[in-house]
């Protein structure tokens, strides 16, 4: 990782006289207005269309949360937290996501499961964890089985953490439960059944997010963040707020999403050259890895390899 890329939320650039970044505010407005409209008028929207809208909004909201964790669009961390805190996906407390992602960027050995909390690699190839990882090794497995596996993994980890840090766990989860209560109350008022919301919004939205992360990190890459890039994101570039350019993001994690394409172009040779890896687009990833694993399960540093 470059020296500039070691801080997760370091002095982001501003627009409008340094007050806020309006492109990100516009995205936030579109997400929340779209969510309110889609849930309010859910009964008159055809189910397949509602599922597409719901999946997009949940995944897009996850991308917005990622931006707020990196210090956008406001100078104030409190304002950024307020903007990204709302748990539209219901399952993941913002405090946990922020802590994990900041630690991910500050890790001295990205992708190593001992030092990177967001690593998908294992220390060994046995046990239930290996079965879960293998089930998600292909893209189809990742999209279909990834959401419930992510939820179960979170619950197991939090149950273990509650034994040693009960007060911290309560502090993380109480505000989340309160906010989830407000979301559920809105859904009840609009007569949007909670099970249908999970099936039409949360589940496919989580799957779309997992599509982005499926091939973005590899332990064998000699580039910032050991991150692969998807060169032509197409409509997914907007959905993921240009996080498909993942090597550029790890090179300059403080850059706002709308500045990443320029940084990627300006440093293309370094970010995609020797020791790097890139995919032409998400269609290419789907064709190559729909039914084929894209990487090994065990991290090379724990399998006789060299970190």
Explain what you see.
The chain has 307 residues and is mainly α. Helix content is 56%, strand content 1%. The protein contains 13 helices and two strands; from the N terminus they run H-H-H-H-H-H-H-H-E-H-H-H-H-E-H. The protein has helices at 22-40, 47-69, 77-84, 94-106, 127-135, 139-164, 166-189, 194-213, 235-239, 246-251, 260-266, 268-272, 282-289; strands spanning 229-230, 278-279. It has a two-stranded parallel ribbon with strand order 1-2. Helix 2 (47-69) packs antiparallel against helix 3 (77-84) and helix 2 (47-69) packs across helix 8.
In a nutshell, what does this entry contain?
It is built from 13 helices and 2 strands; from the N terminus they run ααααααααβααααβα.
Beta-strand share of residues: under 5%
Low-pLDDT stretches: 1-12
Q: What pattern of helices and strands is seen along the backbone?
A: HHHHHHHHEHHHHEH
What is the overall number of helices? 13
Shape: globular
End-to-end Cα distance: 14 Å
Number of strands: 2
| Main beta sheet | 2 strands, parallel
Strand order of the largest sheet: 1-2
Q: What average pLDDT do the residues reach?
A: 92
User: Helix proportion of residues, in percent?
Assistant: 55-70%
Rg, Å, rounded: 19 Å
Helical/strand content category: mainly alpha
Notable traits:
mainly alpha; 307 residues; two-stranded parallel ribbon; 2 strands; 13 helices; disordered N terminus
Write the layout of secondary structure elements.
Layout: H1 22-40, H2 47-69, H3 77-84, H4 94-106, H5 127-135, H6 139-164, H7 166-189, H8 194-213, E1 229-230, H9 235-239, H10 246-251, H11 260-266, H12 268-272, E2 278-279, H13 282-289
Parallel strand pairs: 1-2
Helix pairs in contact: 1-2, 2-3, 2-8, 6-7, 6-8
């Amino acid at each position: 990782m470059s020296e500039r890329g070691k801080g997760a939320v370091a002095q982001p650039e501003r627009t409008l006289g340094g007050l806020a970044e309006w492109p990100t505010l516009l995205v936030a407005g579109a997400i929340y207005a779209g969510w309110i409209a889609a849930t309010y008028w859910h009964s008159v929207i055809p189910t397949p269309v509602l599922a597409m809208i719901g999946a997009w909004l949940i995944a897009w909201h996850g991308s917005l949360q990622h931006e707020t964790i990196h210090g956008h669009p406001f100078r104030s961390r409190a304002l950024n937290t307020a903007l990204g805190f709302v748990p539209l996906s219901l399952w993941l407390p913002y405090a946990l996501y922020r802590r994990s992602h900041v630690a991910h960027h500050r890790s001295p050995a990205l992708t190593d499961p001992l030092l990177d909390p967001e690593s998908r690699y294992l220390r060994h190839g046995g046990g239930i964890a290996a079965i879960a990882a293998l089930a998600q090794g292909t893209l189809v497995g990742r999209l279909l089985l990834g959401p419930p596996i992510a939820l179960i993994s979170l619950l197991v980890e939090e149950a273990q953490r509650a034994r040693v840090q009960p007060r911290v766990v309560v502090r993380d989860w109480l505000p989340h439960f309160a906010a989830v209560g407000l979301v559920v109350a809105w859904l009840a008022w609009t007569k949007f059944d909670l099970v249908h919301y999970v099936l039409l919004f949360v589940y496919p939205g989580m799957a779309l997010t997992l599509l982005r992360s499926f091939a973005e990190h590899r332990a064998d890459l000699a580039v910032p963040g050991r991150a692969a890039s998807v060169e032509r994101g197409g409509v997914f570039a907007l959905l993921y707020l240009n996080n498909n350019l993942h090597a550029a993001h790890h090179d300059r994690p403080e850059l706002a999403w709308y500045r990443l394409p320029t940084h990627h172009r300006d440093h293309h040779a370094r970010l995609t050259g020797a020791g790097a890896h890139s995919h032409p687009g998400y269609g290419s990833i789907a064709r190559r890895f729909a039914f084929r694993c894209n990487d090994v399960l065990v991290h090379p540093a724990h399998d006789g390899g060299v970190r």
